[in-house]
Amino acid sequence: MKIIEVADYKEMSRVSAQIILEKIKSQEHVTLGLATGGTPLGTYKELVKDHEENGTRYDHVHTYNLDEYVGLASSDPESYHAYMCEHLFHPVHIPLDQTNIPNGAAEELLQECMRYDTLIENIGGVDLQLLGIGQNGHIGFNEPGTPFSSKTHIVDLTPSTLEANAEYFADRCKQPTRALTMGISTILQSKEILLLASGEKKQEALFHLLRGEVTEAVPASALKMHDRVTIIADSQALKLVN
Ligand code: F6R
């Protein structure tokens, strides 16, 4: 695992956007795995800024998001679909038919999980997967205890994950308690992985990931079984590790 320590959230966002841009500019066809939540917002802002200033094109980029809430249609403003359209897809003009997000409003959720997993298997895993990390060590919405062999599946979110994401819902009663997520083995198919962590709240998760053993109790520890993982973390997040 390569660890890049940066001063703060801003620098983390700049460095990660740079790595993503290098990939976009160096390949004729690129597949990106994308995350939502607070952590990658700065990275997406940097990508949008670069697109506006330098005109970087995304015609050859295909994207695969990690997860989506069960019960939210893509048109729902609180869905991850809407988040991605607002923060990245529309501003950098990625053709929308080249973007993929699990359909949390599918009638047959199990079939939807299989469809999504097959999509990723067919491309042999994404070229570069962007990840955040949950305070309990989750990646995607793979909560502690998820088997490392898991593929895209339906998950019951833990109280700590629901609490951490509550701020994104205007009405807490409408916050979905289930999600569809790429599994750990789906994520590990990625050719390269970039995990971002910023701030005090991620200290324990990073400590368990970097100093602890490989265990299903800490989903992110599965990344130690992958040979091309880069972690970009700020000094606050790395405080217990240093
Ligand atoms: C989001 C995702 C989650 C988040 C994690 C951290 O697509 O899969 O694993 O990366 O919950 O969330 P933030 O960045 O909001 O702290």
Automatic annotation (TrEMBL):
Pfam families: Glucosamine_iso. Belongs to the glucosamine/galactosamine-6-phosphate isomerase family. NagB subfamily. It comes from the Bacteria. Gene3D superfamilies: 3.40.50.1360. Catalyzes the reversible isomerization-deamination of glucosamine 6-phosphate (GlcN6P) to form fructose 6-phosphate (Fru6P) and ammonium ion. PROSITE patterns: GLC_GALNAC_ISOMERASE (PS01161). Pathway: Amino-sugar metabolism; N-acetylneuraminate degradation; D-fructose 6-phosphate from N-acetylneuraminate: step 5/5. It catalyses: alpha-D-glucosamine 6-phosphate + H2O = beta-D-fructose 6-phosphate + NH4(+). NCBIfam families: nagB. GO terms for molecular function: glucosamine-6-phosphate deaminase activity. Residues 13-228 form the Glucosamine/galactosamine-6-phosphate isomerase domain. This is Glucosamine-6-phosphate deaminase. The active site is at D67, N136, H138, E143. Its EC number is 3.5.99.6. The keyword Transferase does not apply. The keyword Zinc does not apply. Keywords: Carbohydrate metabolism, Hydrolase. Transmembrane segments: none annotated.
